[in-house]
Design brief:
- It is a multi-pass membrane protein.
- Residues 9-376 form the Cation/H+ exchanger transmembrane domain.
- It comes from Ruoffia halotolerans.
- This is Cation:proton antiporter.
- By secondary structure, this protein is mainly α.
- The protein has one domain.
- It is 80% helix and 0% strand.
- It contains 20 helices and no strands.
- The chain has helices at residues 2-21, 26-37, 47-51, 53-71, 74-80, 82-87, 90-107, 111-122, 126-138, 147-175, 180-210, 215-235, 242-256, 258-285, 289-294, 298-318, 326-335, 341-346, 349-352, 358-387.
- It starts with a helix and ends in a 6-residue tail after the last helix.
Length: 393
């Protein structure tokens, strides 16, 4: 297994360097490397590592949620106003509702299967979007009208919204039946998750501020707390959202101490580099190219239709009656296209839980990354200086 880990790390470094030279997101390389080196390719990955794959992806998801919570500025979201708040849930809702229509037509999915795949595919990728928005803010590109701020805030909560819905849909799918109590569990899990995470976050603030711990110990305790919260979701099935609790815990930390949250985020960025390599590599390992090709052109058409509905209905609804000009609106549309991180983290969950159609759901998740991530990344890099004003001048 050590040789497999070394292979993943070395290939990750090489791909990170190579794809950055081409202005492409490195995660695409990790994903393709996993497909090529996995059991359906050259079969160079040790089986013991494959058995640990679900746990490793769970840890990567916790890192994603922690970074999202620490970077989410509620005040900034309120300053941008209505469009930013709508961007948090309207585009994703449109994509999930579109999946409800096309899922049964294309693949014969049931209602809950269609909702699951809609939730998997709906989230914007923070790995692709967030770094680019931070760069735009630092270079004062489009900041006068707060275009990158709106995208950054909206995309952060978009992931939270989608992950909570996915958790609720997964609970229903595993239960096998839908009742009034099933739907009542959704608000209960949301409220308990928010409160539980907020209380733990407040306690961690006390621990980190009043007891001087080394930064590395703070990060370790923070991630361990996230793991405990995610475990509570399985203990109190349907009554506690571990995903929302992790987000809430870190939002509380940012609210109480912005400096501490920035310091923790900086440390987590280093951890995320390694976690990202393993996350996308192991997702690629799970993909059977032969099965993916056997579905034909339908999955690609399905993803394109969902993306177009999201952009031209969901995003445009959010931008109605806003001060943005046509160029700025086009850039916002482009920025909401890429999918990657969340799809990699949860795309294989239905398959791992034995849900019918799980393999097809994983295939759709991987294809969505391969199709939308490079288009979105290249599009944002190319069009940002052409569509957004330089407000530093």
């Amino acid at each position: 297994m050590l040789v497999s880990v070394a292979l993943i790390l070395v290939s990750g470094v090489v791909l990170e360097y190579s794809l950055k030279k081409l202005n492409l997101p490195a995660l695409l390389g990790y994903l393709i490397a996993g497909i090529l080196l996995g059991p359906f390719g050259l079969n160079l990955v040790d089986s013991d590592l494959l058995r640990l794959s679900p746990d490793i992806r769970q840890v990567a998801l916790i890192v994603i949620l922690t970074r999202a919570g620490l970077s989410l500025d509620i005040k900034r979201l309120l300053e941008v106003g209505r469009p930013a708040i709508m961007m948090c849930f309207v585009p994703a809702s449109v994509e999930i509702m579109t999946s409800m229509i096309f899922g049964p037509l294309f693949f014969g999915f049931s209602l809950i299967q269609s909702l699951l795949i809609g939730a998997i595919l709906a989230a914007v990728s923070p790995a692709v979007v967030v770094p680019r928005m931070v760069d735009l803010i630092q270079t004062h590109r489009g900041t006068k009208k707060q275009v990158p701020q709106m995208i950054l805030a909206g995309a952060s909560l978009d992931d939270v919204f989608v992950l909570v819905l996915f958790s609720a849909f997964l609970t229903i799918a595993l239960g096998g039946s839908v009742s009034a109590w099933t739907f009542m569990q959704v608000p209960i899990s949301i409220i308990s998750g928010i409160l539980g995470g907020a209380v733990l976050g407040y306690l961690l603030i006390f621990l980190f501020v009043y007891i001087q711990l080394k930064r590395v110990f703070q990060v370790m305790i923070l991630l361990a707390s996230g793991m405990v919260l995610m475990r509570l979701e399985t203990v109190f099935t349907g009554l506690f959202s571990g995903i929302l609790a992790v987000i809430s815990m870190n939002i509380m930390i940012r609210t109480q101490s912005e400096k501490l949250s920035n310091d923790l985020s900086g440390s987590l960025n280093q951890i995320w580099f390694v976690a990202e390599i393993f996350l996308f590599f192991l997702v690629g390992v799970s993909v059977n190219p032969a099965n993916a090709l056997s579905y034909g052109f339908l999955p690609i058409l399905f993803i394109i239709l969902l993306s177009l509905c999201r952009l031209f209905i969901g995003v445009r609804l959010c931008l109605l009656d806003t001060p943005f000009n046509k160029k700025e609106k086009r850039f916002v549309l482009m920025s909401y296209l890429p999918k990657a991180t969340v799809q990699a983290a949860i795309g294989s969950v239905p398959l791992a839980n034995g849900i019918p159609g799980g393999e097809l759901m994983l295939t759709l998740a991987v294809l969505s990354i391969l199709i939308t991530a490079p288009i979105g990344a290249i599009g944002m890099d190319y069009f940002a200086p052409r569509l957004l004003t330089n407000d530093s001048e």
